[in-house]
Each structure stands twice: as structure tokens, then as C-alpha cells.
Amino acid sequence: MKQSKLLIPTKKENPSDAEALSHIMMERAGYIYQISAGVWAYLPLAYRVIRKVKGIIQEEMEKAGAYEMETPSMLPADLWRQTGRYEAYGDTLYKFKDHNDREYILGPTDEEAMTEILRDSVKSYKKLPLVVYQITDKFRNEPRPRYGVLRGKEFSMLDAYSFAADEEGLDEAYQAQAKAYHNIFDRAGLHYKVILADSGTIGGDNSQEFSAPAEIGEDVIVYTDGGYAANLEKATAKFDAVQQTAEPGKLEKKATPGAHTVDEACASLGVDQGQMIKSMLYMAKMGEDDYQPVMVLMRGNDEVNETKVENALDCEELELASEEDTVKYLGAHPGSLGPVGVGEDVKILADNYVKVLVNMACGANDDGHHYVNANIDRDFRVDQFGDFRNVQEGEIAPDGYPIKFTNGIEIGHIFKLGTGYSKKLGAQVLDKNGRLVDMIMGCYGIGVTRMLSAVAEQNADENGLVWPDSIAPFDVHVIPVNAKKDEQMAMANELEQQLTAAGYEVLVDDRKERAGVKFADSDLIGIPLRVTVGKKAADGIVEVKIRKTGETLEVKQEELVNTVGILLKQLDKQTSND
């Protein structure tokens, strides 16, 4: 293919609004074009990469016994109301009406539609387990689209769904999908960790996330050298606190003017941070119009893990109480809150580390005042103890190794959904005993366009993109140094024919540009191998450069096809071993 005929609008300067390396290089290299905030066009080079990613997914899905189909992007709002997700997703959904005033959404995911189809199409366990999937565009009204195509309002996604009549069928499908995901990400040249994860608005109890470590990743991966891995919302550490045995002191109220943080209150009271209780008031949505105030007690500067609290409460949403609600329920403002004297209308949760403390300091629900020597049961109640904190680096994980943190990009997620959707939508089959049972579901997703960002983020350098050959837009970039010289162009065309006949995808830079411009653009585009046709063309010799390492070697024209094959195999092997 000739570069002069292909739309590749490369740029010398970095985009002014770009923060991520992948965003900078994909836009500079002419892969993507922003139509509006969070809405991107995928230009020919990017489209070729996406097509290859989709091809890998389709191959591995078929091996795993999953078959492709497609549901509409436009979904009836009433279907989502049946499962409660219309309200749970809230403003994240794109909502609209047709000319008959019927309400619709643009689908961000497709559990409801797939469940309805299976409900009306499968009636017997003999057809199960069954796995279907699609690769389609999804829509989410991201309030802060950023990092190029990593977090956009419209994106391409694989979503697969398994349906089974029993747990054995669910496990069979789940394990097959997990294996497929490993194969997909391995073949795409991604470095990733498989971590324990929270299911969020999708639902279900068991889930694993595939996360690609990257500096701009918005997820925190908690991991150890022993193999433990989880996202921050799910991570736990070994509980190492010892029950304090001091004699309970007298509860005293003290003035702490200007003390609004834990550190300020500790300094004012002269107490250790480990004896200070931080009290956070939340509003938990338990039903459509049912909001419950919940106080969460933490030790010192430990951070509340809102996902753990939400799961413990089994609530639909959890958000920090407004200043108005805080004053309404506790009579004070944040910075002076505490559990002493709190009524039964406020549920109190406390982290396990609070349970072992004696003679704690806490807010007095009176602005500018705190208590000292507050004790559980004598001075305040706790309705529920649990692990409600974020783990910290250096703590010991369940596998006995110290915890480490890194940022990661979520590229895939697999869930055991259970019967949550099938119960609400009436998706049942007759089991082998002739009884109606709810279908047991699994859900499996990969961010296809996210994978481009993740691969680019892990492989790009200061000169541009560096694609693994498995998903690169072309295998070889042939560059005649001077396209005006007939012998160089003639040789470039011969090389294109020879390499194409051998099964390689070739881009020829036939533009009448200076050699420096061509080489800079070649580095930006990131094709694995560059073949330069220059001064030695008359002698039948070309230069081959490996984009990933920068290594170069001179090769005779008649040996080029074999050399390309050897180098690409070596690069594939390096990718799989990295």
C-alpha cells in the first residue's frame, strides 16, 4: 500500500490538551481524530489495529465455544427499569424519546437485552450452557472524558454472556472465558495482572479484572511478589491489631477551635493519631425513595473504602452526606463529628481497627469540640464492624507478602452474575428433573479501543508508537530515501511485491518528502520493521531497522523476505517473554 494514498495526518507538535503518552502519540501519528470531547474518529491506521484486535478476539472466542451476534445500541428504557439499572446508572445513560414518546437509552452494556433474547429463545437445559458475544459500540455519558480513547463517551467493547442451568455449567463457561482472555491479551502483546475486583453496577459476587499496569491508569492495583493481586476497592490486608487493655477513662468534652482534620484535632488534644476516630456521614440509597444516614468510623487517617461499605449495606448508591444533611442528623459540621449521642436513626459502622481501641478521641457533634476517653458500648454504640478501609503499601497481604501499589488500566473484566438478571426478567428453563429454574449467568467484557491505549501506553517511546506485530497496522514500512530516484522507487516496489507475496502487510512511503521527515513519521507510526532503500540500492542492499530496539542491519534484497520472517518471529518471542 502506498502511503501517499492513505490518510495519515501526522503532527510535529503534541496536542495541547493531551496528558497521556498514548493519547499524544496516537493523535500525532494520525491514528485518531477528536470530533468532540470524548468522541473520537478512528483513522485508517487505527482501524487496521482495531480490526486485528477484533480478529484475535473472534478466534479466541470461537475456541472457547462462544459465538458472535449483535444486539441494537438503542434499547427500551422499560427493559432497564425492570432490573433497576435505569435508576442506578442515572446520568451516565444517554436517554431520549422517539416520536411516539417512548423512552430509549444508548446501551452502555447489554445484560438486559441478552437475557431477554435467551429468555424467549431457550426453554430447556439441554441447550445450556450457551455463550454468545458481540463487539459493538457502547455509550456512557462520561463527565470527564480524558486520556484520548482511554475514557470516552463512545467506545468499542466485547461483551460476552454465558447462560447455564446449574453452577457446573457456569463454572465451565467462566473458566473457558478466563482462558480466552489470557490468550487474547498475550497475543496482543499486553502486560497485565489478573486481580480480584468488585462487580460494581454489573452485579454478581465473583469477578476478576484484567488490568494493564501503566502510569496513567486510573485504577490502583494492589499486588505482592507472592502473586496476590486485587484492585483497591477489593484488596484486604492481614488484620494485625492487638486489643488494648487500658482502664477506661472518664469521658470529657474539650474545645478544639480551628481543628477540622485528624492531624489538627490530635495536635489540639495532645493525643496520638492511632487513638483518634474519624467519623464520616454518608447517605445510603436503599430503595427508590429510601435514603438512610450511615456513619462510618475509621482509625486516624485511614481512608474509607466506600465500595466495601456499599457492599456491607447492600445499598444501591452511597455518597457523602451534604452539609445540610450532616447538620440535620448530627447537629454539627464535618470536622467535629463523632458517634457519642448519635440516635438510632443513624446506622453506625466501624472498621475492625476501631474495635480494639480504648479511650478514643472523637468529634463531639458540636462545632469546635471533641471528646476524649470515648469507649464502645459505654459511650456509643456500633451496629456493625467490618473491613471498611483502604489497604496501605507495606501492609501484609493475605498471601504473607508486603503490599505494593501500581496504577493500571482496566482492559477486561469477567463476572459470575448468578440469577440477578434472570430472576427479574423471568429467564427460566426446564432442568433435567422437569422443574423451572432461573438461568445462571456470567458476563465477560473487554474494552477493545481501550486496548489500543493500553498497548500504546506500555510500548510507546519519545519518538512515537511501537506496535507488537500481532496488531500493528503493517508488518513492514518500506522507505525509499528519495522517491524522485527511479532506481529507489523501482526497488521499493519490487520489495513490496515480494513481501506481500510472502504474506506480509507492507506500507511504502512513496511521498516526495525529505528523508528526515519520512524517518520521523515512520518512528511515530510505529510499524515493527523499517526497510530503507537508499544509496546501496544499486548494489541490491537495503537497511532494516527494528523499531522496538533501534537495531539496524544491512540485508541483500534476495534475503529480505527470510530476514523479515526471522526478525518478526524474534519480536513475537520477546513480546511473549516480556
From TrEMBL:
GO terms for cellular component: cytosol. It is found in: Cytoplasm. Its EC number is 6.1.1.15. It holds the Pfam family HGTP_anticodon. SUPFAM superfamilies: Class II aaRS ABD-related (SSF52954), Class II aaRS and biotin synthetases (SSF55681), YbaK/ProRS associated domain (SSF55826). Residues 47-468 form the Aminoacyl-transfer RNA synthetases class-II family profile domain. InterPro entries: aa-tRNA-synt_IIb, aa-tRNA-synth_II, aa-tRNA-synth_II/BPL/LPL, Anticodon-bd, Anticodon-bd_dom_sf, Pro-tRNA-ligase_IIa, Pro-tRNA-synth_IIa_bac-type, Pro-tRNA-Synthase_IIa_type1. Its main location: cytoplasm. It catalyses: tRNA(Pro) + L-proline + ATP = L-prolyl-tRNA(Pro) + AMP + diphosphate. Transmembrane segments: none annotated. Keywords: Aminoacyl-tRNA synthetase, ATP-binding, Cytoplasm, Ligase, Nucleotide-binding, Protein biosynthesis. GO terms for molecular function: aminoacyl-tRNA deacylase activity; ATP binding; catalytic activity, acting on a protein; proline-tRNA ligase activity; transferase activity. One of its GO terms (biological process) is prolyl-tRNA aminoacylation. The keyword ATP-binding applies. Consists of three domains: the N-terminal catalytic domain, the editing domain and the C-terminal anticodon-binding domain. Belongs to the class-II aminoacyl-tRNA synthetase family. ProS type 1 subfamily. Catalyzes the attachment of proline to tRNA(Pro) in a two-step reaction: proline is first activated by ATP to form Pro-AMP and then transferred to the acceptor end of tRNA(Pro). As ProRS can inadvertently accommodate and process non-cognate amino acids such as alanine and cysteine, to avoid such errors it has two additional distinct editing activities against alanine. One activity is designated as 'pretransfer' editing and involves the tRNA(Pro)-independent hydrolysis of activated Ala-AMP. NCBIfam families: PRK09194.1, proS_fam_II. Homodimer. PANTHER family: MITOCHONDRIAL RIBOSOME PROTEIN L39/PROLYL-TRNA LIGASE FAMILY MEMBER (PTHR42753), PROLINE--TRNA LIGASE (PTHR42753:SF2). This is Proline--tRNA ligase. It comes from Limosilactobacillus antri DSM 16041. The gene is proS.
